[in-house]
Amino acid sequence: MKKSDDAVRRQPNESRRPAWTREESKAGGDVIIREFDLERDYDAAHRLWLTASPGVKVGMSDTREEIAKKLKRDPDLFLVAEEDGQLTGTVIGGYDGRRGMVYHLAVAEARRGRGVGQKLMAELEARLKAKGCLKYYLLVTPQNLQVVEFYQHLGWGVMPHEVMAKEIK
């Protein structure tokens, strides 16, 4: 941890501290982490992704049809957080037998800073580990660099790599 980060964490002014470091950020027992159900959860998850900017980019892989394909591969790695009957968070994991991947960690803005994202990531990691996954990755958009500190708090490190992609048409 850098010295400046430590100074921020010790500030008595709670509003200056990252939400996930605040004492009240611990998720209570009312947060349920469960597997995603396409019929029950898709509309609410899609709405969440659309409002989770700047970190979640909704694209052609996020249609109901594409998500149905994802669920055929490893439905146990698509998780949601539910509070009082409302979907408040999502995370999609993938595992190809060698490495894991994290997509669409999103928490409703009103529920951020309460440990929901931490719970989703912890459950996803436990499930990846149970499958034999030794390492997993995630991408952070340049517009969402403030989330890097959250992931570092969870033990993630920044890798000096360029990411490339190609859409198959």
CATH architecture: 3-Layer(aba) Sandwich
Count up the domains: 1
Classify the helix fraction into a percent range. 25-40%
Query: What's the SSE pattern?
Result: HEHHEEEHEH
CATH topology: Aminopeptidase
Q: How many whole angstroms does the radius of gyration measure?
A: 16 Å
Strand content: 15-25%
Q: Give the N-terminus to C-terminus distance in angstroms.
A: 44 Å
- Poorly predicted runs: 1-27
Question: What CATH first level would be assigned?
Answer: Alpha Beta
Name the CATH homologous superfamily.
Answer: Gcn5-related N-acetyltransferase (GNAT)
Q: What's the average pLDDT?
A: 84
Please explain how this structure is put together.
By secondary structure, this protein is of the alpha+beta class. It has one domain (19-153): Gcn5-related N-acetyltransferase (GNAT) (Aminopeptidase), CATH 3.40.630.30. The protein is 31% helix and 19% strand. The protein contains five helices and five strands. Strand 4 (100-107), helix 4 and strand 5 (136-138) form a beta-alpha-beta unit. Residues 1-27 have low confidence and may be disordered.
